Structure formats: structure tokens, C-alpha cells
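USER: Please consider what follows.
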Amino acid sequence: MPHNPPPSSHPPLHLYLHIPFCQRICAYCDFARVAAHTHWHAPYINALIAELHHTLPLLPTRAIASLYIGGGSPSFLPASLLTQLLHAVTTAFSLLPSAEISVECNPHQVTTDWAHTLIAAGVNRFSLGVQSLNDHELHILGRLHSAESARRAFSILRAAPCPNISVDLMYGLPDQTEASWHATIHTIADDWQPEHVSLYALQLQHNTPLARLRQRHPANFTWPDDDRIMDWYWHALDYLAARGYQHYELSNTARPGRACRHNIAYWDSRQFYLGLGAAAHSYCTLAPYTAPRRFRNLTSIPAYCARVETGQRWRIFSPPLSARARLGEEIYLALRRTTGFVPRPEHLQLFAHIIRRQLDAGLLLTLPNGALALSRRGIELANAVMSDYV
């Protein structure tokens, strides 16, 4: 369980643990994950714990502000393996008393015993991958749950009890209609009332089953156009806002005080995160380096496990950023947050002309505290706006 960290001059870390296993790969997914491979579950958890212990002496602090177990499908693993992992983390690190401890889960894998076991081990937040409350849309996506099993999973988590639940939803799906999207949003906001709602537009990545299907048989489904997809996005945000949810990041809304602290760390270059597990990414200080660096782990599960167990190299470090790249990164990461960023003189020295052009074009707006943030139009063109700072 969380306990007080020892004093440290370094800011606390946000810890991410990657579980790359899924029961089945969804038709749209290109994340670092594998289907089934249950024989790898226990060896992988052992390797992850070994990586944790290899890493501890290299860190400037053991204080943890948030812990996020993602995937893949962490809920595909038995609760006993996840609690083994949680015990290793909470024994090795010093979690802040208010630490946010999240676990991703798929609805069809959530049971009362599973939820109770993880809550007893310290989990205080679940992220439930609902995606849609339309069974036809779920079938197209290759999901293994139904709308009813999603509702049942949410009820189990709430009754466990878990006071902090996030729900993931997707829009822009094949055969999705305005009516089906509105029905999903309205049910979630009015009936379920989770603390956090994430909204993700479907991105068809090359070589996923759904992308291949669209390329070869485009007439099989009705595909919504970009304007309609954007209308659905704004409807969801406006509907949620009217019910007390705050839009704090491009894809995320939450009730006051329930914004995902782990999520925010990724978009704030003043915060540091450590990723453990195959394909995990990090941005933190790790000896022998004295400044924060970006690095990632090997993606292959067998290679990752073998190298961690034998103490060989499993991390790949990115080259240090130039001053311009670092400052540009600060800006475009901050622009994902609705609070934006307050430009410093060094930002203005390099990017004043871009900032002025975007303000004149109505892509940025100035908040009362002097921060710059994306306007509504800027959000619609976010990728183009942010690319100016790369």
C-alpha cells in the first residue's frame, strides 16, 4: 500500500508497467501486444520485476506519484500475477500517500473476485475499455464483449467499491451513426456517470485487419467522413461538459479533481515517467546520465525477457534533443492540455513568429492567465498546429 516517500530533491516519478498480452487482437489495434501466449505470462511478470530491481539503483528517487498498468489487456492476467507485480512495486518504491494506481481492463474479463483482489492490493482506479455500447460496432472492432457485459463490468467495479473509474470510448467507427454515438455518450454520462471519460477517434493503422478490409472491400461498411466525425467529437464534449465533466486534454474529460494524473505527466515536460516491460517508453533521469533522457525497451517479449534476466542491454536511448527541439516539444506537448502553456522568453525567441501566425489565424487563444491554448478550430487542426513546433 502507498506510504510516505523519503525526502528527495527530485520530483516523483510516474511509473508505467506494460502488459503486452491480449486474449485476441482487436481489428484496429497496432499496439505492442500479442494474442494468448499464456505460457509467457508468469515468466514475463518475473522479468518485469527483475527489470524493476535492475533499475532501482539507477534512479535519483524512489518516490512514485502514479502507477499505471496498461497493455495489451492487464485483465487477461490472473489477479494473482498482477498482485505479485503490485507487491514488488509497492515494496521497492515509495508511493505518495495520494498516489493514483490504475489498471486497464476489458469488460468481459472483469469479475467480482478479480476487482476485489486488485483493490485489496492497492488499486484505486480502473480504466474500462468499453469503446461502444452498440453490439454491431463492437463486433466490427473485434471486441469480445457486448454492451450488456460492459454495463455489468462497470457495475462490478463500482460495487467493489471503486470510486474512480474511467471509460474509454471510440468514435468514427465503420457503420457508426450519429444516433448510435449519441446513445453511447448519453448512456455513459447520464446513467453510468464515471469519473473520467476518454474519447478516441478510430485511426486506421497500416496492416491492421480493419485497414486491410477497408482497402479491399470499402463497400462492406459505411465510413463516416471527417466533418461528421468532428461533429460527433464536439457533441460528446459539449454533452459531457453540461453534466460537469471538464475537458482537460484533447482526448480526455473528467469530473473536477479526477483528471488522470498519470496521463497529464505525458504532456508535461516538467514531469518524468519510467516505463517497465517490453516496448515501454520512458522520460526520466537514469544513471549514468545526469539529465532526463527518452528511451524505450525492446518490443520482442522473448528478447526482452532473456536480456533482462541475464542483465544484458534491453533499453534503447534516443539522442539528446537540441535546444530548439526541446523547447518545441515543451510547446506541442503542452498544447494537448486545455490549460495550454505560458511562453517563456526562450520560447518566444525561437517561436514568436509561429505563435503570432497561429493567433492571427484563430488557431490559438490567450487565456486569462496569459497561457496560450488551442482554440476550437485549433483543436480540429491540432496535428498541423503542433507540427509547426517540431
